[in-house]
Specification:
about 150 residues; alpha/beta; disordered N terminus
Length: about 150
């Protein structure tokens, strides 16, 4: 997608082309040794390697606030049934309420800007959706973010 913007450095009425980023590729530092770009990740995507000593939810939220055109997040992180490890944070059913405000804001800009693309979060790790805890976490993530959640093995 290309956005036309006024360039204040040019005195005449001219525009410049700026590519709008629509995809965020998040990789946890525990799996950062994986150098292969997964299928479905655009070459123009923003790549974020989560710091092992920071809250991964907060890191993702900051990027999304600064890039409101992002409508797809690809997450490559350690998972187990009902649990997603992001930075120094483990997102699960017991602490989901603590992050509800952040998660609700992930795609808020896309909705207010009238994006016609349904937000998507793709999580690479099939273990996350296993069992009742996994199903509950996926359902809650869908409700809080308004995004389609796709789990990729």
């Amino acid at each position: 997608m290309i956005e036309m913007v006024q360039d204040p450095r040019i005195s005449r009425s001219a525009t410049v082309r700026r590519t709008l980023v629509q995809q965020l590729f998040v990789i946890d530092s525990q799996v950062a040794h994986t150098r292969e770009q997964p299928d479905g990740v655009d070459t123009g995507a923003i790549a974020l390697t989560l710091s092992p000593d920071q809250d991964g939810i907060q890191e993702i939220s900051t990027i999304l606030r600064n890039h409101p055109t992002i409508t797809q997040i690809d997450i490559m992180a350690p998972c187990r049934p009902g649990c997603l490890h992001l930075g120094n944070t483990e997102l699960n059913a017991t602490n989901l309420e603590r992050y509800a405000w952040d998660l609700q804001g992930w795609f808020a800009s896309a909705y207010t800007q009238g994006s016609c693309q349904c937000p998507t979060i793709r999580i690479r790790g099939r273990q996350i959706k296993q069992g009742s805890q996994g199903s509950h976490l996926i359902r809650c993530l869908q409700q809080l973010t308004g995004a389609e959640i796709v789990v990729i093995p």
